[in-house]
Amino acid sequence: MRTEPVRTGVATPPPRSADIAPVRSRPAAGTVWTAALVAVLAGPAVLWLLRSGPQPLWRQLSVVTGLLALSAMVVAATLPSRVRALSRALGLETLLVLHRQLGVLAGSLVAAHLAMVVAADPTRVALLDPLVAPGRGIAATGASIALVVLLVLALRRTRHRGSHEVWRWLHLCLGAVVLGASALHVLWLGHVVDDAVLGPVLAGLGVLLIAVLLSRWLMRGLLDHRSEFRVREVRAESPSVSTLVLTRRGRHTGGTWFRPGQFAWLRLDRHALEEHPFTIASSAQESGRAEFTVRHTGDFAATLRDLRTGTPVWVDGPYGAFTSDGVPGTGLVLIAGGVGITPMMSMLRTAADRGDKRPFRLVVHARDRGDLLFRAELAQLRTRLDLRVTEVLRRPVIGWDGATGPIDTGLLAATLTDLDNPHRRVDYFVCGNPRLVDDALGTLATLGVPEDRVHTEQFHHV
Ligand SMILES: Cc1cc2nc3c(=O)[nH]c(=O)nc-3n(C[C@H](O)[C@H](O)[C@H](O)COP(=O)(O)OP(=O)(O)OC[C@H]3O[C@@H](n4cnc5c(N)ncnc54)[C@H](O)[C@@H]3O)c2cc1C
């Protein structure tokens, strides 16, 4: 592909909009949210230690582990509950990693809590017998069993395929049982909720969690009328990939409503429980409109291809921190595998519409030639942007004289040669399957690119 001379320039700031908050420094927002989550996690246990006075060691430890387990469950439930500011600050991948880690931590703390309760008073082992145990014991046993089943299913999920929807609903139902039964256990236990300071703090946490869950499951899903879009067009990009063009129904406020690279959840019915995440691939400068480029992997994605013009689609978004808005780089290197090019297309289309003068380098990694998407449009974008595209096929193919093989140091070093101080002043965006992301991360680390300049998104989440 053609190589254009490097132009240097100053990043064009994204325009202000009525729909989205102004761009704030992501590290600062991330630090504030991390501090808030740590406060929720440790706050109740620290308060208990400050207020409980001298107590036998095992009893003290049993309450502390119990409170830490409860807080870990509250934070774990909040993280994937689509709090937009949180998703924008930390990103989907980080939220899901923390969600998993906190789930495992909660499980370990519950086991420690049970051990401490019995160590403090061995007769309490009777609390495990549902025939003689009081309500608080039955609630604790129910919560513990549900948590163990939930963790086993979640940890096995990475190895076992199967319906994502069935797994997701089982996960949600078990999570609801764990939270509900744990809340009853603490309420019926009495002593921590009776404390003049800890009681209101725990009640506040409970109200906060209920508000987050109501907003996630009722307000946003069922009452937010701004989420209704209509199909304007379905475009075939290749035999296995289509683009769904949507326009927002009714009046909209105008201006940008998402940041380039962010994603949204699509539903085919206002009340449908099934919803799937897809990146908004269009320019963020186009108001009231969104394009989603979708590979027909399974039932849902294939259904999108067959939608007729005018069909309603519900769009819950935008979410995610994988965006070129607000990054400090004076240039951007975008590394995409297959349909992972969708966020890069949004970044490039938006940059072209904004007259962005920064250098953009796009590396596209594909299975075969047919998997190389948007080639004509990228050629056109090169006339509007300082853009160079490097196409790489996974394996050598007869008649292909471009690059082949994995993303490695030789390939990336060649891509970076004309960039000004690529290790310090450039931001790197990587999106694709886990293997491509791992290859790219390893290569960028070898080239000495600092971790905080590398942003990743994977489409495969469990
Ligand atoms: C942030 C993000 C952005 C994405 N953007 C795009 C995009 O621009 N274009 C594109 O083609 N694909 C994208 N995907 C992937 C897309 O969400 C899945 O391919 C789609 O949900 C598959 O559903 P299915 O029923 O068609 O296939 P299935 O065969 O049912 O599922 C295939 C795999 O997709 C994942 N998946 C299925 N359902 C869900 C769900 N409800 N939530 C999360 N993951 C699920 C699971 O890993 C599953 O194993 C994105 C995924 C994420 C997380």
Task: Jot down its keywords.
462 residues, alpha/beta, Elongation Factor Tu (Ef-tu), domain 3, Rossmann fold, 3 domains, six-stranded parallel beta sheet, 12 helices, binds flavin-adenine dinucleotide
Count of DSSP helices?
12
Low-confidence stretches: 1-24
Q: Tell me the number of strands.
A: 12
Specify the helix fraction band: 40-55%
Largest sheet: 6 strands, antiparallel
Radius of gyration, taken over Cα atoms and rounded to an integer in Å: 25 Å
Overall average residue pLDDT: 89
How many angstroms separate the termini? 37 Å
Q: How would the global form be characterised?
A: elongated
The count of domains is 3
Q: In sequence order, what are the helices and strands, one letter per element?
A: HHHHHHHEEEEEHEEHEHEEHEHE
The hetero compounds bound to this protein are:
flavin-adenine dinucleotide
* Strand composition percent: 15-25%
Given helix and strand content, the structural type is alpha/beta
Strand order across the biggest sheet?
A: 4-3-6-1-2-5
